[in-house]
Design a protein that fits this description.
The complex is a heterodimer of chains A (293) and B (315). By secondary structure, chain A is an all-alpha fold. Chain A contains twelve helices and two strands. Chain A has one domain. Chain A is elongated and about 70 Å long. Chain B is elongated and about 75 Å long. The chains are: A mainly alpha (293), B alpha/beta (315).
Chain lengths: 293, 315
């Protein structure tokens, strides 16, 4: 019962802070701008992209639809969303230490483990709500503006077409996966916030770690290849795997299939291990921490 | 039903035994032992940096002791923290609250976390006790420091605690704010029958509100006892200055006050005498043909505390 009260109190505090709405506003603004841009110039942009394809294929119908827009938006935004998540998660402990409310919280009959769990769950709920908000804008509003249809994904060496009836569940799964990835980021920011007495440090540290790991991922050097599979940043874009459709022996797509399901599950598993690692680390450190602020 | 440790005819609410806390090579609290009786206002006195806040933080489990035991309500804090804190309210240093929330909202969330579900009228009643019911809906960020401190005490009382711990509650307040907090502490003790442990670096503050007190210096206990006994008005220190201090010392050495002289030099003569003896002493000096140019009486403990303060300042 106590943990539900802590979660309620933490969510109440999160949603009474003005900074919480920066993230929601930023997502609405960025997605809205991308949609406006594609609404105005999307057709010419797509024609340019499809030039080489039209020499080999007879492309009919509307390529730029809500599903493709959502894919473009997700690919663009999910790299930046960690900053918006860190704004709240990195503040969960350090912000309280900075305000001096942490010592007041801990003079109440609330266990430290319970407090960490409650705060972590609240920050995870915030993360999921942020992604739900993003889904509404990226998918819902895009379908309203651009309509639905088969989804065409252009990659460097291949084009994938997914028929309309096989797309929507993939987005649900993709947003589910993205939630796990973003909760891993949230867990790291949360863990770092225990060591600081203001939220700037953990926010900067979270972003720095993501940037460094992302750079390591892009460097094709043998020395880094051994650690890459274990970096959470390697798996953050694993949601794309839901849009790789398996084909049968006749090269026909199998409805409802995922080409590399095992890879997607391994990525999700590694992200979940990171989440539990950071959470257990947070509990371990916080239980031993002297509250001196 | 709580059961506490009994000692003679009174109940010991807090029992601290051989408490120490070190941060690296620095010892903030050094082998401190004391006890607080139920129903009393206990003054915890010491200069800034004496170890008061560290001790209070250990009593609230904010800091883990290096050595020693803390028993509150006859329960061990290290094993029964939550059961103990259900009956404790505290303001540690400044009353820092959620500035972006109203006083009412702060009270509401801390009551939930304290395991009590106060109704709106109960919250407003508790705010009325500290004189803030008219400002219940205002965000805390617009409150003065004194109002925040009073709200902090109201937040400490959300669970109707048996024990209230206040760490330097008058710090940073104007004279009116100090008087308000002082009256509130007296009200908590006398009308609401709470046990209050209040720390301060001002003897004058503790003297006005406390029944018992403890003085610590550099983390060690200096003196503990009832305020009435420690600040015994019957015995005072008298500082004398005369036209010829050396002659005065010589005369005093052969007088009834010979054993009561504490400090003697060419500039200062200090004796410890009964209050009613001051007039007799001054007449006796004049009768010796010595001109009395100054006589100042003060409390022994006050002088002792001031000496600690000045020694600290010298360091």
């Amino acid at each position: 019962m106590q943990i539900t009260k802590i979660i309620y109190v933490e969510l109440f505090k999160i949603f009474r802070k003005p900074r919480t709405y920066i993230a929601f506003g930023a997502i609405a603004a960025i997605v809205g701008l991308i949609q406006l841009g594609f609404y105005a110039d999307g057709e010419s942009y797509m024609k340019f992209g499809m030039q080489s394809l039209e020499e080999s294929f007879d492309v009919k119908g509307k390529i730029l639809n809500g599903y493709l827009m959502a894919y473009i938006i997700l690919q663009t935004l999910l790299v930046h969303v960690p900053l918006l998540i860190a704004l709240v998660s990195a503040d969960m402990i350090s912000g309280e230490a900075n305000m001096g409310t942490l010592r007041l919280l801990l003079t109440k009959p609330v266990g430290r483990t319970e407090l960490i769990l409650g705060k972590f769950i609240a920050s995870s709920i915030y993360t999921m709500l942020l992604l739900f908000w993003m889904a509404i804008w990226a998918l819902g509003i895009s379908i309203l503006i651009f309509g639905a249809g088969d989804m065409l994904i252009l990659k460097s060496d291949l084009v994938t077409q997914i028929i309309q009836s096989d797309v929507f569940w993939r987005y649900l799964a993709a947003f589910g996966f993205a939630s796990i990835a973003m909760i891993a980021v949230s867990a790291m920011a949360f863990f770092l916030s225990i060591f600081s007495e203001n939220s700037i440090g953990p926010i900067m540290a979270t972003m720095s770690i993501i940037i460094i790991f992302t750079i390591l991922n892009t460097l094709d050097l043998p020395i880094f290849n051994h650690i890459k599979p274990y970096l959470f940043t390697t798996h953050m874009l694993g949601w794309k795997g839901f849009f790789d459709v398996q084909v049968d022996e006749n090269n026909v797509q199998i409805m409802g299939s995922i080409e590399n399901l095992r890879g997607v599950l391994i990525s999700a598993g590694i992200l979940i291990i990171h989440i539990f690692g950071f959470l257990l680390g947070s509990i371990y450190v916080f239980k031993r921490k002297d509250i001196l602020t | 039903m709580l059961s506490y440790g009994y000692h003679h005819s009174f109940i010991l609410l807090i029992q601290i035994q051989h408490l120490s806390k070190s941060f690296g090579s620095f010892t903030a609290v050094n082998d401190l032992s004391f006890s607080v009786k139920e129903g009393e206002v206990y003054g915890f006195l010491g200069q800034n940096g004496a170890g008061k806040s560290t001790t209070i933080r250990m009593m609230l489990s904010l800091i883990r002791p290096s050595v020693g035991t803390i028993r509150i309500f006859d329960k061990d804090l290290s094993t029964e923290r939550n059961q103990i804190l259900r009956h404790v309210g505290a303001v540690v240093e400044k009353a820092d609250l959620y500035n972006y929330l109203s006083a009412y909202e702060n009270m509401r969330i801390f009551s939930l976390l304290s395991g009590v579900n106060l109704t709106r009228s109960e919250i407003l009643y508790k705010l009325a006790v500290v004189g803030l019911e008219q400002r219940a809906g205002d965000k805390v960020k617009v409150y003065s420091q004194g109002m925040k401190q009073r709200l902090g005490i109201a937040v400490a009382m959300v669970n109707d605690p048996k024990l209230i711990i206040l760490d330097e509650p008058t710090n940073g307040l104007d004279p009116q704010g100090i008087a308000d907090i002082r009256n509130l502490i007296i009200q908590l003790s006398k009308e609401m029958h709470k046990t209050v442990l209040v720390s301060s670096h001002l003897l004058s503050e503790v003297e006005l509100i406390a029944d018992s007190m403890l003085i610590i210096h550099k983390g060690k206990k200096i003196v503990e006892g009832s305020v009435a006994a420690l600040l015994d008005p019957a015995l005072v220190q008298v500082e004398i200055s005369t036209t010829d201090n050396l002659q005065t010392i010589s005369a005093l050495s052969n007088s009834q006050w010979a054993g009561q002289m504490q400090k003697l030099d060419a500039f200062k003569i200090i004796l410890e005498v009964k209050k009613e003896e001051i007039a007799v002493l001054s007449k006796w000096i004049v009768d010796q043909g010595i001109g009395l140019t100054g006589l100042h009486s003060s409390n022994r403990l006050e002088n002792y505390f001031l000496s600690l303060t000045s020694a600290h300042a010298d360091n």
